[in-house]
Amino acid sequence: MTPPRLVVALSLAGLLAAACGERKRPGPPTITLEAPPGNVVTSPDTFLVGVHASDDNGLDSIIVSFLTDIRGIDAFEKLDYTDQLILTVPADHAVGEVLEIIGVARDLTGEVASTSVSVTIVDTGAVQR
Fold first, then answer.
1. Count of other CB atoms within 10 angstroms of residue 89
2. pTM, 2 dp
3. d(CA 81, CA 10)
4. Which DSSP state fits 123?
5. For the chain, what are the domain ranges?
6. Which of 116, 99, 118 lies closest to 44, judged by CA?
7. What is the mean pLDDT of the chain?
């Protein structure tokens, strides 16, 4: 090889090596749920739950379920999603009862992650907003 071609070949080899370095592999998304302060609610009640999901490959969808309420969130192609949902506790739940909020995130590669958080029904005098 002549010197200019050798320089070009070495430069291309260097660029290829740099491009093939460490890169993130597809993995499942992350999802977190943030319950109300103290993880307590009353019955009846409405409360906010924070939802955060992320994925380096892009999110497809998020589902949050609480009792019979199932919320589908279209997060198509977003790398990061944050929002708050208003959830409702009906009047028929007793003090001390523990209720679960479930969150599921799916990314564009089809991988799924889930999490849950619980809230406890307390007497109306025990909740400070």
1. 19
2. 0.78
3. 43
4. -
5. 30-126
6. 99
7. 87
